[in-house]
Amino acid sequence: MKEIIILEKNNKEYPKKLLKIEDAPEKLYALGNIELLNKTSVGIVGSRECTEYGWYQAYKFSNELSKNDICIVSGMALGIDSAAHIGAKDEKGKTIAVLGGGFNKIFPTENENLFYSILKNDGCIISEYELDVEANSYTFPKRNRIISGLSKALLVVEAKHRSGTTITAKYAKEQGKEVFCIPSNLGSKAGYGTNKMISEGAKIALCYENILDYINNDTKKENINLVGDSLLIYNSIEQEPTNINEICKKTNLSIVKVNSIITMLEIEGYIKQVQSGSFEKVR
Asked: Got the DSSP string for the chain?
């Protein structure tokens, strides 16, 4: 086994994303590539007793997101979690496994080979529990808040009614993360939870691009460093080209002021002119 690294909250390597969640772990035990902990990641979770359809979709989405330099986070359980880790690994992508117990008590034992394979392929495995702590019905739900906390968005692939997966989705919503679900056959017990989440507002994931587009757009928003009237004007510009008169109407600013700020936004690369007097966002 590789050397165990202990990350406390005051360590610079401690995941910055976890510092933003409620009840962040005081310390983490880590094996492998800890640089992944601060990389853009998507959590993929789902039923342990998944269908063939669910396993394939989890593998496929993980594989495609990995091709686009997205790290995959999951819980190394049987079923959907395993498919997600393997999908990333097979693409030579990076994956993080969050355990519900200590490193000396690998659970489930059927995934011991996956545990070492993740490390061999430059992945990372973490746990908030000391080495000899066994996973149980208390540690698994707590583990789930770390999976969602590390993730930019969460993808749910099959979830039974009132399952551990729905707990992860609940954590994600509380943390302000977007939850995506792959729709399932209405007669499938394994997909009851995901279909219910969609009916309650989760986004439908029909292809990996749905998630990738969300991440790219959200990253652009995070990089916006505007205030005051500049931000007001920027936010008034829709995805479709927006003309000067519309901007003035939405912001209640004079055309002279709008023209001045529009010029600054163009120079700094926030917007571009696409038609005479009409603009759209660049980032």
From this structure: -PPPEEEETTSTTS-TTGGGSTT--SEEEEEE-GGGGGS-EEEEEE-SS--HHHHHHHHHHHHHHHHTT-EEEE---TTHHHHHHHHHHHTT--EEEE-SS-TTS-SSGGGHHHHHHHHHTT-EEEESS-TTPPP-TTHHHHHHHHHHHH-SEEEEE---TT-HHHHHHHHHHHTT-EEEE----TT-GGGHHHHHHHHTTPEE-SSHHHHHHHHHHHHHHHT----HHHHHHHHH--SS-EEHHHHHHHHT--HHHHHHHHHHHHHTTSEEEEETTEEEE--
State which CATH number among 3.30.1490.10, 3.40.640.10, 1.10.10.10, 3.90.105.10 fits the domain covering 224-281. 1.10.10.10
Put simply, whether the predicted model's pTM sits higher than 0.90 gets the answer: no
Task: Please name the fold of domain 5-220.
Answer: Rossmann fold (3.40.50)
Tell me the pLDDT tens digit for each residue of 171-206. 999 999 999 999 998 888 888 999 999 999 999 999
